[in-house]
Amino acid sequence: MDHLIKGYREFRSRRWPEERERYTDLAHNGQKPEYLVIACSDSRSDPATIFNAHPGELFVIRNVAAVVPPYETDDTHHGTSAAIAFAVLSLNVRNILVMGHAQCGGVAAALDNSIAESVPFLGRWIELLAPAATHSAHIADHAAHHVAMERDCVRLSLERLMTFPFVAERVRAGKLQLDGGRFGIADGKLELLDRKSDRFVTVD
Questions:
Q1: What pLDDT, in 10s, does the model give residues 127-181?
Q2: Which of 71, 116, 129, 187 has the smallest CB count inside 10 Å?
Q3: Rounded-to-integer distance, Cα 3 and Cα 198, Å
Q4: Per-residue model confidence (pLDDT) at position 26
Q5: Which residues pair with 52 in a beta bridge?
Q6: In the chain, what are the domains?
Q7: What is the rounded distance in angstroms from the CA atom of residue 150 to the CA atom of residue 98?
Q8: Residues 6 or more apart in contact with residue 36 via CB below 8 angstroms
Q9: Is pLDDT at 73 greater than 80 in this prediction?
Q10: Are 191 and 180 in contact (CB under 8 A)?
Q11: CA-based Rg of the chain, rounded to a whole angstrom?
């Protein structure tokens, strides 16, 4: 905890004075982010850091492998789906970015079942990536397969977003845009999915 307290004190002494008016406005008027970012929980791929975001600019959902689950209406718990619904219906975000990343541990677990064996809940969650694993299963080289699946997982989540009726309705009405991306841990480069070519293109 000492490290976190040290970081908080740095925040209070350096960033808080710069952002105080923004925080005051957010406290009084509420948040109005235009962007929902669905990202991996991995500590190396923080959206606020990558996009140099100010407080209130991004509504962020983070889970293992940046997975969007299928749209379901049963009575079980749906944390990611609830956050998507809140962002779209209550906050009226204008853009949803699904952002995967290199060296994703969730993707590794989907490719190697033994990784999730000793981690409760992880195996069932990673099963959601099965269609992406199947799509890239023909790639023999392990490293290339891993990268291809990271990209395919982003494509899969974008497809699943369109199964949410309120998302599809706003996309068709031109009120909501969906994008996909992948962040490189080692090189700091961001790739975005070109929907016309279905290829990931590095941002200059």
A1: 999 998 887 778 878 888 889 999 999 999 999 999 999 999 999 999 999 999 9
A2: 187
A3: 43
A4: 96
A5: none
A6: 1-30 (no CATH), 31-202 (3.40.1050.10)
A7: 11
A8: 58, 59, 60, 61, 84, 87, 88, 91, 93, 95, 96, 97
A9: yes
A10: no
A11: 18
